[in-house]
From TrEMBL:
A Pfam family matched in the record: PPK2
Keywords in alphabetical order: Kinase, Transferase
Region entry Disordered, spans: 1-28
Entry-linked NCBIfam families: PPK2_rel_1
Protein name: Polyphosphate kinase 2 family protein
Organism of origin: Deinococcus aerius
Biological process annotations from GO: polyphosphate metabolic process
Protein's UniProt keywords contain rRNA-binding: no
InterPro entries referenced in this protein's UniProt entry, alphabetically: P-loop_NTPase, Polyphosphate_phosphotransfera, PPK2-rel_1, PPK2-related
Single GO MF annotation: polyphosphate kinase activity
Length: 266
């Protein structure tokens, strides 16, 4: 699979229409799902090495529209990792305490420590999406926030944290199907928020906001646009990209501080 085709080039304007939401790279669902067990095994191995090494961290950022598949990605892909080495954070509407600080204050405290994998299921980018679409901040403020985010991510990179960011790209038709499915299934009513329909009415405004967000793609903190209409393909692509990222980090088991040949367990 040509993984770089899904990477957002740094320093260029972004048009989401460049990426199809229903891409499957010519695979069938059966073929794609058959690949996942081996990928999960490789992810688990790389995470164990990262945890044992304790010298690097990985921050995974997930952003998507409502019903875009963030929770499903966490369950199916992040679920391959040992929970002891993963920290998942979800940033929603800021609290009164959080609003009394700069917008990155609440984010920095949730950055993974060395050896850990952090997952932001919604992230610091929320503060340049909803406020922008609803006119709570003006375009110059949104652009300044993007610049602060670039500097923040550069700081994390310099401190040993690798960053990889995924935008889960779904079509309005697929979002409609998923929202309707939540209404049709009583066991899914808890996942339905009537406010999602209001946000859906701002589809084009959100497209512009996401395209601005994606301009923060950098060599050290890339954005990937993940076709997400097909859940199995979303999981396959995110898994492969995480493996690629972790292999580039190349975590190693630490050398023992003793000579195992001289130790005998009686």
């Amino acid at each position: 699979m040509p993984l770089e085709d899904y990477r957002v080039p740094p320093g260029q304007p972004v048009q989401l229409s460049r990426w199809a939401t229903d891409d499957d790279d010519g695979l069938s669902k059966k073929q794609g799902q058959a690949l996942l067990p081996d990928l999960e095994e490789r992810l688990a191995d790389l995470q164990e090495r990262l945890y044992a090494e304790g010298r690097q961290a990985l921050l995974i950022v997930l952003q998507a529209r409502d019903a875009g598949g963030k929770d499903g990605t966490v369950k199916r892909v992040i679920g391959a990792f040992n929970p002891n080495g993963v920290q998942i954070s979800n940033f929603k509407v800021p609290t009164e305490e959080e609003r009394a600080h700069d917008f990155l204050w609440r984010i920095h405290a949730r950055v993974p420590r060395l050896g850990m994998i952090g997952v932001f299921n919604r992230s610091h980018y929320e503060d340049v999406l909803v406020p922008r679409v609803h006119g709570l901040i003006d375009p110059p403020t949104a652009e300044r926030r993007l610049e602060h985010i670039r500097a923040f991510e550069s700081l994390l990179t310099d401190s040993g944290t690798r960053i990889v960011k995924f935008y889960l790209h779904i079509s309005p038709e697929e979002q409609r199907r998923r929202l309707q499915a939540r209404l049709d299934d009583p066991s899914k009513h808890w996942k339905f928020n009537p406010g999602d329909l209001e946000e859906r009415a701002h589809w084009d405004d959100y497209t512009a906001a996401y395209e601005a967000m994606l301009t923060t793609s950098a060599a050290s903190a890339p954005w990937y646009v993940i076709p997400a209409d097909r859940k199995w393909f979303r999981n396959l692509l995110v898994s492969q990209l995480l493996i690629q990222t972790l292999e580039e980090m190349n975590p190693q088991y630490p050398a023992p501080t003793f000579d195992p040949a001289n130790v005998r367990v009686e």
